[in-house]
Amino acid sequence: MGLIKEKPRRTSMQAKFVLSISILLLCEPAHSQQDRQRRVGFIGNGGVTQSTAPYMDCFRSAQKKLGWNEGENITTIYKWANGNAGIIPQLVKELKDANVEVIATGGTLVTQNVAELVKDTPIVFAAVSDPVSSKIVTSASRPTGNITGQSNNLSATSRKILEYIKNINPSVKHMALLRNPNNDGKLIEENEIMNSAVDVGINIVKVDLVTAKDKDAAFEKIRLSMPDALLVLHDFAALELKKALSDFAIENRIIAAAQLKEYATSGALLSYGLNYCRHFERVSGYVDKILRGAKPVDLPVEYPSSFELVLNLRTAEALKLTIPASTLTQADELIE
Hints:
This is ABC transporter substrate-binding protein. It comes from Methylobacterium longum. It holds the Pfam family ABC_sub_bind. There is one protein chain. By secondary structure, this protein is an alpha/beta fold. It has two domains: 37-152 and 275-298, Response regulator (Rossmann fold), CATH 3.40.50.2300; 155-274 and 308-335, 3-Layer(aba) Sandwich (Rossmann fold), CATH 3.40.50. It is built from 13 helices and twelve strands. It has helices spanning 12-35, 53-65, 88-97, 108-117, 158-168, 184-200, 215-225, 236-240, 242-251, 261-265, 276-291, 313-318, 325-328, and strands spanning 38-44, 74-80, 102-106, 123-128, 147-151, 174-179, 203-208, 229-232, 255-260, 270-274, 308-312, 333-335. The longest helix has 24 residues, at 12-35. Mean pLDDT is 91; it is low at 1-8 and 12-34.
């Protein structure tokens, strides 16, 4: 019978060495995952302007707070449709060629198009009024597929804006509604406005604004309709014209109202709606979660928990309007 040779036993020093190497190998993927350069894409409905830049600053600031430093461990590639849905396929291709891991989108129109084109990369949307009605997701509580995000839910502001207008000036009977007819989100908000207008006794004339080039035609239609008030449904073209819209309204003795604070700070009498800086911070939070391993299906679509009322008292004085104390006390901010 041959001798059975025993396997040489490891010394305690050898065992410690093997254990150390094993730990390093186990930890290496997580370490490289955090330190390697991550790539995120963003496609916005508008363009790079003074109006959109602050929102991107908020997005980047939130990224930094979450540990993502641009140029160090993350690269964000921005693309802008400038209101032209026809170029979105090319923008998507450019992001895919850049091997982005997540695509963030801004606006209903862009999000709808990107969702149709991209099925294998997570998408996080912003500034979508009603993602279910717009057929972006089938369920807000448990979105299926590769998409989730933050709804601005601006349609929920409709009735309240009309009530604020009537509280400030009960004689308002006729209102111009400025909207982009090519944006499904605006059409959803428009339906809410039309239903609420009947209840508060306001007649509405619709005015189209697709791009800034439509300004003169839109202003002329408003003049001819001789409204008591103008309600601006937020869209990238309207945002670019916010100062011109406010000046036009004051010049023509019209109460101007809108859905974002930026319109009121530019001279509209009031705004009631979302804080867009916080909105884009929340979007950045969802991008962060996905980069760290979360799936869109595990991230319910979020809706804003509150809206802000901003009143421009300088404009009220210019229009010789006295804002009731009951409305003043509800304001989150007064511009004096």
